[in-house]
């Protein structure tokens, strides 16, 4: 547990760093592209008329890409260390590292590229060469770091707003869940006091589990356990009228938004099983499908009640859709199949991290 806590803390520190991961392929491609654009800009103002444009472009591109990729590699390797500092300190250290890389490779470039007499700048131009490179590096690095910081602040604000909306949506489910559970306990009190006591204990455990996660995420195993406890409470009330069929295949160790399954099961019982005189069977199918996790709940529908069932489920489904949209964007979906005798809801979540 202590090792897991330290790992989560380190991951949280890295996520709080304003710098993006320069180890990512997309980021490396962006660095190469921006460096090449800069090379074209620099070539438009030739320093040595004796060299043709294409030769000058080749030399400038080689030199700029050298500095850009080396800077990206340094920031990539230094990212875990930078995450231990505040963003202000990390920005200052990054800025100094970028200037240091520019200074080192400017010296190397001057000695290597200008060894040829045809490429050598006028005598005494060494200082001008270094000053020009350092000035450009200082300006470009400051603009880039400022851009990354503003982007990070904007993303943090979006995440904060999304978390607030998710918690607000989730808070609408908990009272409804609580009231239905209390009604179940109340109906059991007069029939079987021992079962009512067990239901109270299950309800306490359920709320302890759902309230423990302040970010609205729980492990998939915990979400299944919450659903099983809820179904056990309903089984105490409905008895043999409620049948559950679980199909769990290749369950991954992932986190999902809390209280996704329970509202679907609650609707399946209230709108599907309970109105039937003989009850019915609810099928719960959870499986990995490629890079997606599918959670499917299927229940019988009383004859002639399809439209009523759809309207009764609308609030829960819209709530779940909105929470998934805020958490995963377009990568998550809620698919509903409303037949004459069966009602099926499929929740599909991405297993890959969402950027």
In short:
With 355 residues, the protein is α+β, with helices and mostly antiparallel strands. It has helices at 2-16, 25-43, 53-82, 87-113, 126-189, 193-212, 220-238, 261-273, 306-328; strands at 217-219, 242-249, 255-257, 280-289, 292-300, 333-338, 342-350. It folds into two domains: 2-121, no CATH class; 166-350, Histidine kinase-like ATPase, C-terminal domain (Heat Shock Protein 90, 2-Layer Sandwich).
What is the rounded distance between the termini?
27 Å
> What do we call the CATH homologous superfamily of the largest domain?
Histidine kinase-like ATPase, C-terminal domain
- Sheet having the most strands: 5 strands, mixed
Helix content: 55-70%
Structural class: alpha+beta
How many distinct helices?
9
Question: Within the CATH hierarchy, at the fold level, what is the topology of the largest domain?
Answer: Heat Shock Protein 90
The strand order across the widest sheet is 2-4-5-7-6
Write up this protein.
The protein has helices at residues 2-16, 25-43, 53-82, 87-113, 126-189, 193-212, 220-238, 261-273, 306-328, and strands at 217-219, 242-249, 255-257, 280-289, 292-300, 333-338, 342-350. The chain is an alpha+beta fold. The protein folds into 2 domains: 2-121, no CATH class; 166-350, Histidine kinase-like ATPase, C-terminal domain (Heat Shock Protein 90), CATH 3.30.565. The strands form 2 sheets. It has a 5-stranded mixed sheet, covered by helices on one side. Strands 1-3 form a two-stranded antiparallel sheet. Helix 2 runs antiparallel to helix 3 (53-82). Residues 1-12 have low confidence and may be disordered.
